[in-house]
Hints:
Blueprint: E1 8-13, H1 20-29, E2 35-41, H2 52-62, E3 69-74, H3 78-84, E4 89-94, H4 97-113, E5 118-123, H5 133-141, H6 152-162
Parallel strand pairs: 1-2, 1-4, 2-3, 4-5
Helix pairs in contact: 2-6
Coenzyme A binds at residues 12-14, 16, 19, 21-22, 25, 41, 43-44, 46, 77-78, 93, 95, 102, 106, 109-110, 124, 128, 131-134.
Amino acid sequence: MDTPQPRTAVYPGTFDPLTMGHRSLVRRALKVFDHIVVAVAEQTPKQPLFSLEERVDMIREVFVNEPRISVEPFHGLLVDYVAERGASVILRGMRAVSDFDHEFQMALMNRRMNKDIESVFLMTDFKWLYISSTIVKEVAKAGGDYEGLVPVQVMRRLQERFGPPNGRNK
Length: 170
Ligand code: COA
């Protein structure tokens, strides 16, 4: 009998920055896949706060002791990167119904471009339903408390940019 191939999923995103929601999703996905590649996009419609290199470094720090998770930058089309990587699954998180339209559109467009690649969705843990990278940055910039919403490695970088939370809403 053939030895089963390890199942790799590519988890793409801007990750500007990675939040606890992303971290939890990657770890949960390890129950389904053997290996997760966190693929950090250079090309995104957003204007990221952190450079591609900073985003990749931060995420590598977060998963440093987790050999089944790797972190790589990617350029150009996601489907091309997934194919080059020898994978056939794109992993995405879904937080609420509001994510659905956008995710559906991306999944269909990606499938149109490469029929051998499937998109797989995991529901975000309810604890992280309300957070996004944008909302965390907004609170950090204004001096609010966001402790616990991002890994400590990310919190450190946000504090370097915006200073410590002012403690007002503790
Ligand atoms: N927990 C917390 N937040 C989550 C989350 C979770 N589990 N899942 C998603 N989010 C947040 C993200 O932080 C992000 O927040 P933000 O808008 O405040 O930055 C948002 O939900 C998702 O943003 P979205 O724009 O859908 O995706 P993305 O930024 O994560 O990544 C790419 C988009 C990179 C995958 C897409 O642009 C891409 O594939 N680019 C490459 C070029 C390409 O192939 N384009 C064609 C695509 S069809």
